[in-house]
Design a protein that fits this description.
Oligomer: single chain
Number of strands: 2
Number of helices: 1
Shape: elongated
Helix content: 25-40%
CATH architecture: 2-Layer Sandwich
Distance between the termini: 46 Å
Radius of gyration: 15 Å
Strand order of the largest sheet: 1-2
Number of domains: 1
CATH class: Alpha Beta
């Protein structure tokens, strides 16, 4: 019998103001996002992406 494990994956793009967070802060945030998603969705695929895009404050468009 063939057994197939299906896992959930995700891609998030998060916009932040440039030069406001250290590299370690962004890495810790990504880890926490993945933990929170796993709690809500169940185990997520290890190849799930969270991209942090640093932008000038006047370029960030909330709610788009």
């Amino acid at each position: 019998m063939l057994s197939i494990k299906v896992s959930k994956g995700c891609y998030l793009n998060i916009e932040i103001s440039d030069s406001t967070n250290l590299k370690q802060d962004k890495a810790a945030y990504i880890d926490e996002v993945h933990k929170a998603l796993s709690l809500q969705l169940g185990e997520i695929h290890p190849v799930s992406y969270t991209a942090i895009q640093e932008m000038k404050a006047d370029e960030i468009r909330p709610g788009r």
